[in-house]
Amino acid sequence: MGHGKESPRQKMIGMMYLVLTALLALNVSKDVLNAFVNVDEGLHKTTMNFVAKNQDVYNNLDKEAKLNENKAGKFRDLAQEVKKRADEVFEFIQTCKIEIINTADGQGNEAVKGTEVDLKNVNSKDNTDIPAQIMVVQGKAAELKKKIEEYRAFIVANIDEQNAELKNSIESGLNTDNPPVSADGKMETWEGERFTHLPLAAVITIMSGIQADVRNAESDAVRYIYNQITAADFKFNKLEATVIPNSNYIISGNEYEAQIFLAASDSTQTPTIYIGDYEEKVDANGITSYKMRPGFDSIKVFKEGKGIFKERRSIGLRKWGGLIKLKAPSGGSDILKPFKMEYQVAEASLVVSPTKMNVFYIGVENPVEISVPGVPGDKIFPSISNGSITKSGKGYIVKVNSPGKTTINVTAEIEKIKKPMGSMEFRVKQVPDPIAKIGGIKIKGNISKQVLAAQSGVIAEMENFDFDIKFNVTEFKLSYTTPAGFVKEEISKSNKLTKSQISLIEAANKNQKIYVEDIKAVGPDGKPRPLGSIILTLN
């Protein structure tokens, strides 16, 4: 597969390739060949989704170009060139598919309808000669590889160097490198790996996967191009007064501080900032004007257009505001923008915030944030009644020992004196049990014998849980009842399917119910937990 960081869509396509590879590892039975049909249909749906989403972007590019041809026209044209090249690669692959099927099943077959292909109607799904003959012997695979490389190079050349992750993603999705040398020293080519010694059904499915990769790269490219229309624009359309205080909640004895500036400022001039009460008047035309009342003050403004307002107040609510004046361009009327703010001066208080939720879990690191407004972090000293609390970065890590409740107590050093800031109580719980799954199925579900036998084993996943916790399955039992009433079972002492369990699966009949039971998993606390059973019906 690829070498760079993959997008979610590429990961999905990659999963389909993994399923395909697993199927190839089995005997090419009728069921296996029909399984390729399902994978091919999934890839076709994915490709159609890309086409629909890409068309939305092309429509938006056309609208932008109609509104401003000088600004957006070149981006529309570039996107259309990407589409043209993507269509050429896609259609070449489609033509090769049709030629392979027509050669195998003859002209007028049921699988080819115009330019569309339906793999389930192909009669020669197991043919391993014709795909190689057309793609490798006749050189179509080499021609396809060249087209993909030219398409990839064109897209990457039109992405700036600051978007290295996008470049890597496209190069990964359209990778045409030869596979690594095998353990026995055998060298394979990109063409040979995909088109030789494989049944026709597998080759058609691989080609559908390449088509999906082509459309995926097209999608990434045209969305990037669309975003370039406004990449260099300023992101504001209003001129507003802005006030950024150091805090709206001040401890008694500390100083309140706020920055005052225009959100969209002019670097060629410095505004004037007035502090105090002002009058607001609306004339007959609905135009609002402002005027400072007597007793106002002004503050110093720095080169970047920001003024710093400071004051010290007694306990209580403080409301304040003023006007920012900026000279208008071309000798027009000065621009006056009002601002109003308020802040609360209060006694010291404690804030303890659990980063995840209002519960601490046993056996995991529970991150919390502890702060006392107006007090630096290095002057805050927390303790806990049940467990331990240690500093970690800008926050703290809590580890608890037993279920029930625990209390965090905090003291703070204010003016060189340690004062109690208060306490807060939290619940302590065990980490909930994970959910056992095999082949993505939990509790019960349908699965083919081949797919089940290809699974690595049973996993335990935490669902809807805020912590990233890993549970490892340590054992499980696989069993089913034969038509004669005998129970067959095999036990694994790990999370992996044993050879005996795989043999048991392969010996089962269609519609047979297979039970995955006695599942045990171990989490961060090191204690084994019994998990729920899974009932699988073979289809």
SSE order and pairing:
Layout: H1 8-24, H2 30-67, H3 69-105, E1 112-113, E2 116-117, H4 130-137, H5 140-157, H6 164-173, H7 190-195, H8 200-227, E3 241-245, E4 249-251, E5 256-262, E6 272-275, E7 278-282, E8 288-292, E9 297-299, E10 307-311, E11 316-326, E12 335-346, E13 351-354, E14 359-361, E15 366-371, E16 380-384, E17 388-392, E18 395-399, E19 404-414, E20 417-429, E21 435-437, E22 444-447, H9 449-454, E23 459-461, E24 472-481, E25 487-492, H10 499-507, E26 513-522, E27 528-531, E28 534-538
Parallel strand pairs: 4-12, 14-20, 22-28
Antiparallel strand pairs: 1-2, 3-5, 5-10, 6-9, 6-11, 7-8, 11-12, 13-15, 15-18, 16-19, 17-18, 19-20, 21-23, 24-25, 24-26, 26-27, 26-28
Helix pairs in contact: 1-2, 1-8, 2-3, 2-8, 3-4, 3-5, 3-8, 6-8
How would you describe this structure to a colleague?
There is one protein chain. Helix 2 packs antiparallel against helix 3, helix 2 packs parallel to helix 8 and helix 3 crosses helix 4. Helix content is 33%, strand content 30%. It has 10 helices and 28 strands. Strands 22, 24, 25, 26, 27 and 28 form a 6-stranded mixed β-sheet that branches. It has 4 domains: 220 residues, no CATH class; 106 residues, Sandwich (Immunoglobulin-like), CATH 2.60.40.10; 79 residues, Immunoglobulin-like, CATH 2.60.40.1080; 104 residues. A hairpin with a 2-residue loop joins strand 1 and strand 2. With 539 residues, the protein is of the alpha+beta class.
